[in-house]
Amino acid sequence: MEINFYREPDLVKEGVIPSADTIDLTAAKNDDTTPQLKIQKKTQEILGDNNLIDGISIRNPNYLNDYIRSQRTKLAGFVEKTNGKINDATSRYIDKEQNITTTIKDLHTNPEEKLLPGLSYTAVAFMTGSILVSKRNFMLRYTVPMVLGISCFSIVMPCTFNNVKHLTYNLENKYMPNFTRRQDMINDKIRKNAAFIRSSMVKNMDIISKPFYKLQGYLPKWMNDTSK
Fold first, then answer.
1. Is 33 exposed, middle or buried (0-12, 13-18, 19+ CB in 10 A)?
2. Partner of 11 for a Cys bridge, out of 16, 180, 195, 227, CB 3.0 to 4.6 A?
């Protein structure tokens, strides 16, 4: 049988005898001169108001509720801010990983070129250049390994080398446009000079070879005339 401890009292059955003296509860509550009321009021301020929840008396101090609410709000904001930073860092990492993977995939477009053997040959050529000029000056120690490594790379993997060259040119043009412009001017001059030298050599070879061709045509006739 369930017992209700918070039932309404039955004055007749319980024999409650009303007193002739009445107490003004409102006045007693507002009267701060009584020491007991002062202590009760101070205790109520510290412990909070008494609330009855599901038959249980619970006190909730306002200052404690405000403190817990403020700390919970700060903790929730900190957790949300931390999660946002973690998500941003994860997104940046995933984007960089995808960019690197896509770049490597775009560079190695020819499946016939074996990536691991080609890189191994390039590394061997680079180390060979370093060994050959290990006791030379700084310029040789820096340039010879680079020249040998790049030359070997261009021979063993020509398609990948061209892709890397175009990628390097695009990066230089994006981050160092002035340097790229000067480099293009120098390459144009070298290309023009090479074409001029090639055409000059062809013309000179034609000029030099004409007398020999004529002599080669006269020589059989002269041999026939002398034999007669």
1. exposed
2. 16
pTM for the structure as a whole: 0.46
User: What are the distances in angstroms from CA 31 to CA 21, 43, 217?
Assistant: 18, 16, 144
Assigned token pair, 23: 């107490």
Q: Locate 131 and state its tokens.
A: 């060994």
Q: Check: CB of residue 145 under 8 Å from CB of residue 124.
A: no
The whole-angstrom separation of Cα 167 and Cα 165 is 5
pLDDT 10s digits, 83-122: 999 999 999 999 888 888 887 777 877 888 888 888 899 9
Burial class (CB in 10 A: 0-12, 13-18, 19+), 105: exposed
What is the Cβ-side half-sphere exposure of residue 151, based on CA atoms within 13 angstroms? Answer: 10
Give domain limits for the chain.
27-82
Q: How far apart are CA 75 and CA 3, in angstroms?
A: 43
Please choose, from the candidates 97, 103, 91, 81, the residue with its C-alpha nearest in 3D space to the C-alpha of residue 167: 103
Pair 179, 172: CB distance under 8 Å: yes
Q: Is residue 133 within 8 Å of 145, Cβ to Cβ?
A: yes
Three-class HEC string of 165-216 = HHHHHHHHHHHCHHHHHHHHHHHHHHHHHHHHHHHHHHHHHHHHHHHHHHHH
